[in-house]
Amino acid sequence: MKPPCAVTARPLAGAVRRAAALLVAWPAVASVSCGRADLATTLLDGAQPGTGRAWTGAGDASESGSTATSGGSTAAAGGGGGGGAAGAEAGVGTGVGGGGGGAAGAGAGGGAAGAGAGGGAGGAEGAGRGVRIIAVGDTGEGNLAQNEVADRMSEKCLAVGGCHAVMMNGDNFYNHGVLATDDPQWGPKFEQPYDRPGLNGLPFFAVLGNHDHGPTSNGARQAQIAYTLLPVGDGPGMRRSDKWRMPAPYYDVRIGDVHLFGIDTVDFISGEQADDMSARVAASDATWKIVFGHHPRYTSGEHFFDNEPPGMFDLQQAIYCGADMYMAGHDHNLEFIDKGRDERCPGTYFAVSGAGSKTRPASALVPTDPKQLFYTDEIEGFAYMQLEGRALRFEFIDRRGVVLYATTLVK
């Protein structure tokens, strides 16, 4: 007997998308706990220590459950969409749950979104180093700065023995997003810059920025979602690598004891996303919960006075109030703001990592945030987080490899 799927319905406009040479019917769901095994789970392998090697597609969904094996360790998910397993180097597993129309199941291996199962077994070599994540935003220029930031990201991951994931904070493609899965921008603005030894194979979990919605909002965002489903290869209708992950406009990812919640801040036109994602945040038992989206809630950058989407701040707050950190881009700077900035959410830190390919000096009219611990708009860079137990090591690193700011947060 097949395990049941827990599904929350949400129709998407234009439910048929073109992916590769085929017309793919897009599931009109906000969350599904069983689904495509190759999309549901990321397997982290220890066969090449130090490379951060990862891939998807080893899950085997069956009537009795889903299983996967990697690096000598096995995890089983009764009803999950592909089992999650961690190899000797990684020591953690990853599960993904989709929202707002994405086709993603809940995986095993360290916990799952929705109704999936947790529990991938990890090897000893990766133990004691925690979960290691890069966060970078506003990358989509395909310029020298983006490539140099990518070099430093790769070097950092190699130096720490491999990273587990990259969070992309939106504006992945300037100036109007990509309009197809074979748009020529995929190469110079994503595949080529991140073809680096320390990044190859890592899952890049991306959210949409205002530029990604493009002149025809649905087409632009749907192309980025559809790219996730393409097979890997060099031929027509294929993607060059398996890095790109955007299973839905909003979704959540469990990596060991770290839970990431990716949101679409551009399309905050109703409370539906806020209701869905705030419930997921509240239900998570992860030690660390991080929400990431494009528009910052607080910033000392130029976008301080922007006209943001109606009601965005209230809807953001409904989600991040239950999280330990809200990570954003949009402002082309690096900024870290202490917890307590939002009196209604006293335990939430705020970070901006939006200098992945360019910077923009703040206007002199913009006040410095009273809780600001660090700010720069003078050089491009990224954020690095290492989460182990109740400690989170946070760093900003620039395109030269200089650590501009470092702090350790303890719960």
From TrEMBL:
Tell me if Hydrolase is a UniProt keyword of this record.
yes
Where is the segment annotated Disordered? 45-84
Q: What keywords are assigned to this protein?
A: Hydrolase, Signal
Q: Where is the signal peptide?
A: 1-30
Q: Which Pfam families match?
A: Metallophos (PF00149)
For this UniProt entry, the molecular function terms from Gene Ontology, in alphabetical order, are: hydrolase activity
Cross-referenced InterPro entries, in alphabetical order? Calcineurin-like_PHP (IPR004843), Metallo-depent_PP-like (IPR029052), Metallophosphoesterase_PAP (IPR051558)
- PANTHER family per record: TARTRATE-RESISTANT ACID PHOSPHATASE TYPE 5
Q: What is this protein called?
A: Acid phosphatase 5, tartrate resistant
Q: Which organism is it from?
A: Sorangium cellulosum (Polyangium cellulosum)
